[in-house]
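for the writeup, i need someone to sanity check this before i put it in the appendix. the sequnce is what the collaborator sent (i think, or maybe the updated version? ugh). structure was predicted straight from it, no edits. if anything looks off just tell me and ill rerun, i have time this weekend
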Amino acid sequence: MSAHIINKDGPFDQQHPSDLMSRARRVPTPGKATVLAMGKAFPSQLIPQDCLVEGYFRDTKCQDLSMKEKLERLCKTTTVKMRYTVMSKEILDKYPELTIEGSSTIKQRLEIANPAVVEMAKQASIACIQEWGRSASEISHIVYVSSSEIRLPGGDLYLATELGLKNDVGRVMLYFLGCYGGSTGLRVAKDIAENNPGSRVLLTTSETTILGFRPPNKERPYDLVGAALFGDGAAALIIGANPKPEESPFMELSYAVQQFLSGTNNVIDGQLTEEGINFKLGRDLPQKIEDNIEEFCSKLMEKSGVRDYNELFWAIHPGGPAILNRLESKLGLRSEKLECSRRALMDFGNVSSNTIFYVMEYMREELMKKDNGEEWGLGLAFGPGITFEGILLRSL
Protein backbone atom coordinates (compact mmCIF):
# COMPACT_ATOMS: atom_id res chain seq x y z
CA MET A 1 0.00 0.00 0.00
CA SER A 2 1.43 3.37 -0.93
CA ALA A 3 -0.10 6.79 -0.51
CA HIS A 4 -1.22 8.98 -3.36
CA ILE A 5 0.91 12.07 -2.98
CA ILE A 6 0.32 15.74 -3.60
CA ASN A 7 3.55 17.71 -4.04
CA LYS A 8 3.53 21.02 -2.22
CA ASP A 9 6.35 23.20 -3.46
CA GLY A 10 7.62 26.16 -1.46
CA PRO A 11 6.38 29.73 -1.87
CA PHE A 12 9.01 30.28 -4.59
CA ASP A 13 8.23 27.17 -6.62
CA GLN A 14 7.85 29.20 -9.81
CA GLN A 15 11.28 30.80 -9.46
CA HIS A 16 14.68 29.39 -10.34
CA PRO A 17 17.04 29.20 -7.32
CA SER A 18 19.22 31.90 -8.89
CA ASP A 19 16.29 34.30 -8.54
CA LEU A 20 16.31 33.72 -4.80
CA MET A 21 20.06 34.23 -4.59
CA SER A 22 19.69 37.65 -6.22
CA ARG A 23 17.41 38.64 -3.34
CA ALA A 24 19.80 37.52 -0.59
CA ARG A 25 20.93 40.46 1.52
CA ARG A 26 23.55 38.91 3.78
CA VAL A 27 26.70 36.93 3.09
CA PRO A 28 26.85 33.40 4.58
CA THR A 29 29.44 32.89 7.31
CA PRO A 30 32.28 30.71 5.97
CA GLY A 31 32.04 27.17 7.31
CA LYS A 32 28.52 27.56 8.72
CA ALA A 33 25.75 25.25 7.50
CA THR A 34 22.99 26.86 5.44
CA VAL A 35 19.59 25.75 4.17
CA LEU A 36 19.86 25.61 0.37
CA ALA A 37 16.37 24.33 -0.55
CA MET A 38 13.10 23.05 0.90
CA GLY A 39 10.27 20.82 -0.28
CA LYS A 40 7.20 19.14 1.13
CA ALA A 41 4.60 16.52 0.19
CA PHE A 42 1.28 15.25 1.49
CA PRO A 43 -1.06 12.30 0.93
CA SER A 44 -4.02 13.05 -1.31
CA GLN A 45 -6.69 12.66 1.38
CA LEU A 46 -7.52 16.20 2.55
CA ILE A 47 -9.86 16.55 5.53
CA PRO A 48 -11.43 19.92 6.38
CA GLN A 49 -11.75 20.19 10.14
CA ASP A 50 -15.49 20.83 9.79
CA CYS A 51 -15.91 17.35 8.29
CA LEU A 52 -13.64 15.40 10.63
CA VAL A 53 -16.03 14.53 13.45
CA GLU A 54 -18.79 13.03 11.32
CA GLY A 55 -16.32 11.02 9.26
CA TYR A 56 -14.35 9.76 12.27
CA PHE A 57 -17.41 8.55 14.17
CA ARG A 58 -18.91 7.03 11.03
CA ASP A 59 -15.69 5.17 10.16
CA THR A 60 -15.22 3.84 13.71
CA LYS A 61 -18.94 3.05 14.12
CA CYS A 62 -19.01 4.89 17.45
CA GLN A 63 -22.43 5.94 18.75
CA ASP A 64 -21.30 7.77 21.91
CA LEU A 65 -22.80 11.26 21.63
CA SER A 66 -20.89 12.68 24.62
CA MET A 67 -17.56 11.75 23.05
CA LYS A 68 -18.71 13.13 19.73
CA GLU A 69 -19.58 16.45 21.37
CA LYS A 70 -16.19 16.49 23.11
CA LEU A 71 -14.38 15.98 19.81
CA GLU A 72 -16.43 18.76 18.23
CA ARG A 73 -15.27 21.12 20.99
CA LEU A 74 -11.65 20.01 20.62
CA CYS A 75 -11.73 20.54 16.87
CA LYS A 76 -12.70 24.16 17.42
CA THR A 77 -10.08 24.88 20.10
CA THR A 78 -7.15 23.43 18.12
CA THR A 79 -7.50 26.21 15.48
CA VAL A 80 -6.74 23.60 12.78
CA LYS A 81 -8.69 24.19 9.55
CA MET A 82 -7.53 21.28 7.40
CA ARG A 83 -5.20 18.29 7.41
CA TYR A 84 -3.88 15.64 5.08
CA THR A 85 -4.05 11.96 6.00
CA VAL A 86 -2.95 8.60 4.62
CA MET A 87 -6.03 6.96 6.14
CA SER A 88 -8.80 6.53 3.59
CA LYS A 89 -12.02 4.63 2.92
CA GLU A 90 -10.06 2.20 0.75
CA ILE A 91 -7.72 1.38 3.63
CA LEU A 92 -10.58 0.87 6.08
CA ASP A 93 -12.37 -1.37 3.58
CA LYS A 94 -9.23 -3.48 3.27
CA TYR A 95 -8.42 -3.44 6.99
CA PRO A 96 -11.78 -3.17 8.84
CA GLU A 97 -10.09 -4.52 11.98
CA LEU A 98 -8.46 -1.09 12.47
CA THR A 99 -11.81 0.19 13.74
CA ILE A 100 -12.36 -2.67 16.21
CA GLU A 101 -11.42 -1.98 19.80
CA GLY A 102 -8.70 -4.30 21.13
CA SER A 103 -7.71 -5.79 17.77
CA SER A 104 -4.09 -6.82 17.33
CA THR A 105 -3.28 -4.72 14.27
CA ILE A 106 0.35 -3.62 14.48
CA LYS A 107 1.25 -5.79 11.47
CA GLN A 108 -1.49 -4.26 9.35
CA ARG A 109 -0.62 -0.74 10.45
CA LEU A 110 3.01 -1.19 9.44
CA GLU A 111 1.98 -2.64 6.09
CA ILE A 112 0.27 0.68 5.45
CA ALA A 113 2.63 3.10 7.18
CA ASN A 114 6.07 1.88 6.11
CA PRO A 115 5.68 2.37 2.34
CA ALA A 116 3.48 5.46 2.75
CA VAL A 117 6.08 7.24 4.85
CA VAL A 118 8.87 6.55 2.36
CA GLU A 119 6.70 7.60 -0.58
CA MET A 120 5.93 10.94 1.06
CA ALA A 121 9.61 11.42 1.92
CA LYS A 122 10.54 10.63 -1.67
CA GLN A 123 8.11 13.18 -3.13
CA ALA A 124 9.20 15.88 -0.66
CA SER A 125 12.84 15.14 -1.52
CA ILE A 126 12.16 15.36 -5.26
CA ALA A 127 10.51 18.77 -4.77
CA CYS A 128 13.46 19.90 -2.64
CA ILE A 129 16.09 18.69 -5.11
CA GLN A 130 14.21 20.42 -7.92
CA GLU A 131 14.32 23.73 -6.03
CA TRP A 132 18.01 23.16 -5.24
CA GLY A 133 18.71 22.88 -8.95
CA ARG A 134 21.54 20.35 -8.60
CA SER A 135 21.86 16.64 -9.31
CA ALA A 136 20.80 14.11 -6.68
CA SER A 137 24.19 12.48 -7.25
CA GLU A 138 25.76 15.39 -5.35
CA ILE A 139 23.96 14.40 -2.13
CA SER A 140 26.60 12.96 0.20
CA HIS A 141 24.49 12.25 3.30
CA ILE A 142 20.89 11.53 4.33
CA VAL A 143 19.37 12.31 7.73
CA TYR A 144 16.03 10.48 7.87
CA VAL A 145 13.51 11.33 10.61
CA SER A 146 10.27 9.48 11.39
CA SER A 147 8.17 8.28 14.32
CA SER A 148 5.79 6.46 11.99
CA GLU A 149 7.58 3.38 10.65
CA ILE A 150 9.36 0.34 12.08
CA ARG A 151 11.48 -2.05 10.04
CA LEU A 152 15.00 -3.16 9.20
CA PRO A 153 16.51 -1.88 7.01
CA GLY A 154 14.95 1.48 7.66
CA GLY A 155 13.32 4.04 5.44
CA ASP A 156 16.65 5.81 4.93
CA LEU A 157 17.86 2.93 2.75
CA TYR A 158 14.59 2.67 0.84
CA LEU A 159 14.61 6.43 0.24
CA ALA A 160 18.22 6.42 -1.00
CA THR A 161 17.33 3.62 -3.40
CA GLU A 162 14.16 5.32 -4.66
CA LEU A 163 16.04 8.57 -5.31
CA GLY A 164 18.89 6.77 -7.09
CA LEU A 165 21.53 8.06 -4.69
CA LYS A 166 25.05 6.67 -4.58
CA ASN A 167 25.42 3.48 -2.58
CA ASP A 168 28.08 5.09 -0.39
CA VAL A 169 25.79 7.93 0.72
CA GLY A 170 26.15 8.40 4.49
CA ARG A 171 22.87 7.58 6.23
CA VAL A 172 21.57 8.54 9.67
CA MET A 173 18.18 7.41 11.02
CA LEU A 174 16.40 9.32 13.79
CA TYR A 175 13.40 7.30 14.98
CA PHE A 176 10.64 8.03 17.51
CA LEU A 177 11.71 11.48 18.65
CA GLY A 178 8.21 12.85 18.16
CA CYS A 179 7.61 16.55 17.64
CA TYR A 180 11.20 17.70 18.13
CA GLY A 181 12.59 15.24 15.56
CA GLY A 182 12.81 17.80 12.75
CA SER A 183 14.85 20.19 14.88
CA THR A 184 17.14 17.36 15.95
CA GLY A 185 17.56 16.50 12.28
CA LEU A 186 18.63 20.10 11.63
CA ARG A 187 21.24 19.88 14.38
CA VAL A 188 22.63 16.58 13.08
CA ALA A 189 22.63 17.79 9.46
CA LYS A 190 24.41 20.96 10.56
CA ASP A 191 27.15 18.96 12.28
CA ILE A 192 27.61 16.74 9.23
CA ALA A 193 27.74 19.66 6.79
CA GLU A 194 30.22 21.65 8.86
CA ASN A 195 32.56 18.73 9.55
CA ASN A 196 32.59 17.19 6.06
CA PRO A 197 33.85 19.83 3.59
CA GLY A 198 31.85 19.93 0.39
CA SER A 199 29.08 17.68 1.73
CA ARG A 200 25.43 18.20 0.85
CA VAL A 201 22.96 16.69 3.30
CA LEU A 202 19.40 15.69 2.45
CA LEU A 203 17.30 15.99 5.60
CA THR A 204 13.89 14.32 5.33
CA THR A 205 11.04 14.00 7.81
CA SER A 206 7.91 11.96 7.16
CA GLU A 207 4.99 11.14 9.43
CA THR A 208 1.58 9.45 9.39
CA THR A 209 -1.02 8.94 12.12
CA ILE A 210 -1.76 5.37 10.97
CA LEU A 211 -0.01 3.83 13.99
CA GLY A 212 -2.24 5.77 16.39
CA PHE A 213 -5.61 5.54 14.62
CA ARG A 214 -8.24 3.76 16.73
CA PRO A 215 -11.91 4.06 17.74
CA PRO A 216 -12.86 6.50 20.51
CA ASN A 217 -12.64 5.15 24.04
CA LYS A 218 -13.46 7.00 27.28
CA GLU A 219 -10.48 5.29 28.91
CA ARG A 220 -8.17 7.02 26.40
CA PRO A 221 -9.24 10.69 26.33
CA TYR A 222 -6.03 11.79 24.62
CA ASP A 223 -7.05 9.83 21.50
CA LEU A 224 -9.62 12.55 20.85
CA VAL A 225 -6.95 15.25 21.16
CA GLY A 226 -4.88 13.37 18.61
CA ALA A 227 -7.85 13.02 16.28
CA ALA A 228 -8.48 16.76 16.48
CA LEU A 229 -4.88 17.90 16.11
CA PHE A 230 -2.52 15.61 14.16
CA GLY A 231 -2.01 15.24 10.42
CA ASP A 232 0.27 13.48 7.90
CA GLY A 233 2.96 14.73 5.55
CA ALA A 234 6.65 15.01 4.77
CA ALA A 235 9.33 17.67 4.39
CA ALA A 236 12.85 17.81 2.98
CA LEU A 237 15.79 20.22 3.10
CA ILE A 238 19.22 20.39 1.50
CA ILE A 239 21.86 21.53 4.00
CA GLY A 240 25.40 22.56 3.13
CA ALA A 241 28.22 24.91 4.14
CA ASN A 242 30.14 27.30 1.88
CA PRO A 243 27.45 27.50 -0.82
CA LYS A 244 28.50 27.54 -4.45
CA PRO A 245 27.66 30.53 -6.69
CA GLU A 246 24.85 28.57 -8.34
CA GLU A 247 23.25 27.65 -4.99
CA SER A 248 20.70 29.77 -3.12
CA PRO A 249 21.17 29.78 0.65
CA PHE A 250 18.39 31.56 2.50
CA MET A 251 18.96 30.61 6.14
CA GLU A 252 22.08 29.92 8.17
CA LEU A 253 22.16 27.37 11.02
CA SER A 254 24.26 29.27 13.51
CA TYR A 255 24.10 27.40 16.83
CA ALA A 256 22.07 24.45 18.16
CA VAL A 257 21.15 23.33 21.68
CA GLN A 258 19.24 20.34 23.07
CA GLN A 259 18.10 20.07 26.68
CA PHE A 260 15.83 17.73 28.65
CA LEU A 261 13.90 18.58 31.80
CA SER A 262 14.69 16.19 34.62
CA GLY A 263 11.77 14.32 36.12
CA THR A 264 9.40 14.89 33.20
CA ASN A 265 9.74 11.55 31.38
CA ASN A 266 6.05 10.75 31.78
CA VAL A 267 4.59 14.09 30.72
CA ILE A 268 4.63 12.94 27.09
CA ASP A 269 4.37 9.16 27.07
CA GLY A 270 4.13 6.87 24.05
CA GLN A 271 3.93 3.08 24.18
CA LEU A 272 3.98 0.73 21.20
CA THR A 273 1.50 -2.13 21.65
CA GLU A 274 -0.09 -4.82 19.53
CA GLU A 275 -2.89 -2.31 18.80
CA GLY A 276 -0.51 0.41 17.58
CA ILE A 277 0.96 3.31 19.49
CA ASN A 278 -0.75 4.82 22.53
CA PHE A 279 -0.01 8.38 23.62
CA LYS A 280 -0.63 10.14 26.89
CA LEU A 281 -0.08 13.86 27.27
CA GLY A 282 0.15 15.51 30.67
CA ARG A 283 -2.01 18.57 31.26
CA ASP A 284 1.03 20.32 32.73
CA LEU A 285 3.01 20.23 29.47
CA PRO A 286 2.33 23.88 28.48
CA GLN A 287 3.23 25.02 32.01
CA LYS A 288 6.48 23.02 32.03
CA ILE A 289 7.51 24.59 28.73
CA GLU A 290 6.54 28.08 29.91
CA ASP A 291 8.53 27.71 33.13
CA ASN A 292 11.76 26.83 31.31
CA ILE A 293 11.58 28.71 28.00
CA GLU A 294 13.42 31.90 28.98
CA GLU A 295 16.52 30.13 30.25
CA PHE A 296 16.61 27.94 27.14
CA CYS A 297 16.22 30.86 24.75
CA SER A 298 18.99 32.81 26.50
CA LYS A 299 21.48 30.04 25.64
CA LEU A 300 20.73 30.53 21.96
CA MET A 301 20.35 34.31 21.94
CA GLU A 302 23.71 35.05 23.57
CA LYS A 303 25.43 33.91 20.37
CA SER A 304 23.58 36.56 18.36
CA GLY A 305 24.00 39.58 20.57
CA VAL A 306 20.24 40.22 20.41
CA ARG A 307 18.55 40.82 23.77
CA ASP A 308 15.01 41.79 22.79
CA TYR A 309 12.73 38.87 21.92
CA ASN A 310 10.80 41.05 19.51
CA GLU A 311 13.93 41.77 17.47
CA LEU A 312 14.03 38.09 16.48
CA PHE A 313 11.93 36.10 14.02
CA TRP A 314 10.37 32.97 15.52
CA ALA A 315 9.84 29.51 14.02
CA ILE A 316 8.22 27.50 16.82
CA HIS A 317 6.82 24.02 16.34
CA PRO A 318 3.06 24.51 16.94
CA GLY A 319 2.34 21.55 19.19
CA GLY A 320 -0.99 23.19 19.92
CA PRO A 321 -2.46 26.66 20.45
CA ALA A 322 -2.02 26.51 24.24
CA ILE A 323 1.76 26.25 23.93
CA LEU A 324 1.92 29.11 21.42
CA ASN A 325 -0.32 31.30 23.56
CA ARG A 326 1.75 30.70 26.69
CA LEU A 327 5.07 31.39 24.96
CA GLU A 328 3.70 34.55 23.37
CA SER A 329 2.58 35.79 26.79
CA LYS A 330 5.66 34.66 28.73
CA LEU A 331 8.14 36.22 26.29
CA GLY A 332 6.06 39.31 25.62
CA LEU A 333 6.01 38.68 21.88
CA ARG A 334 4.02 40.84 19.52
CA SER A 335 1.15 38.89 18.00
CA GLU A 336 2.68 38.77 14.51
CA LYS A 337 5.82 37.03 15.81
CA LEU A 338 4.13 33.61 15.97
CA GLU A 339 1.97 34.11 12.89
CA CYS A 340 3.94 31.57 10.81
CA SER A 341 3.52 28.91 13.51
CA ARG A 342 -0.20 29.61 13.76
CA ARG A 343 -0.58 29.45 9.96
CA ALA A 344 1.20 26.10 9.78
CA LEU A 345 -1.02 24.68 12.53
CA MET A 346 -4.13 25.98 10.80
CA ASP A 347 -3.15 24.67 7.34
CA PHE A 348 -1.65 21.28 8.22
CA GLY A 349 -2.31 20.47 11.88
CA ASN A 350 0.48 19.13 14.07
CA VAL A 351 2.47 16.91 11.69
CA SER A 352 5.01 15.96 14.35
CA SER A 353 8.63 16.29 13.15
CA ASN A 354 7.65 17.94 9.85
CA THR A 355 5.82 20.93 11.22
CA ILE A 356 8.85 23.07 12.08
CA PHE A 357 9.76 23.05 8.39
CA TYR A 358 6.32 24.16 7.29
CA VAL A 359 6.76 27.05 9.73
CA MET A 360 10.22 27.81 8.34
CA GLU A 361 8.86 27.87 4.81
CA TYR A 362 6.22 30.41 5.77
CA MET A 363 8.95 32.37 7.59
CA ARG A 364 11.11 32.38 4.47
CA GLU A 365 8.20 33.88 2.54
CA GLU A 366 7.63 36.58 5.16
CA LEU A 367 11.30 37.53 5.47
CA MET A 368 11.67 37.84 1.70
CA LYS A 369 8.81 40.35 1.63
CA LYS A 370 10.67 42.72 3.96
CA ASP A 371 13.29 45.23 2.82
CA ASN A 372 15.02 45.14 6.19
CA GLY A 373 13.80 41.96 7.88
CA GLU A 374 15.16 40.50 11.09
CA GLU A 375 18.61 38.96 10.76
CA TRP A 376 18.40 36.55 13.70
CA GLY A 377 15.69 34.12 14.77
CA LEU A 378 15.02 31.06 16.87
CA GLY A 379 13.73 27.67 15.73
CA LEU A 380 12.23 25.76 18.66
CA ALA A 381 10.51 22.40 19.14
CA PHE A 382 9.44 20.38 22.16
CA GLY A 383 8.75 16.69 22.65
CA PRO A 384 9.11 13.60 24.82
CA GLY A 385 11.59 13.98 27.65
CA ILE A 386 10.44 16.77 28.05
CA THR A 387 13.05 17.68 25.45
CA PHE A 388 13.73 21.20 24.20
CA GLU A 389 15.45 21.41 20.83
CA GLY A 390 16.50 24.82 19.55
CA ILE A 391 18.58 26.40 16.83
CA LEU A 392 19.76 29.96 16.31
CA LEU A 393 18.91 30.93 12.74
CA ARG A 394 20.30 33.72 10.59
CA SER A 395 18.32 35.00 7.64
CA LEU A 396 20.43 35.54 4.51
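The chain is about 35% helix and 25% strand. Residues 9-22 have pLDDT under 50 and may be disordered.
thx in advance!!
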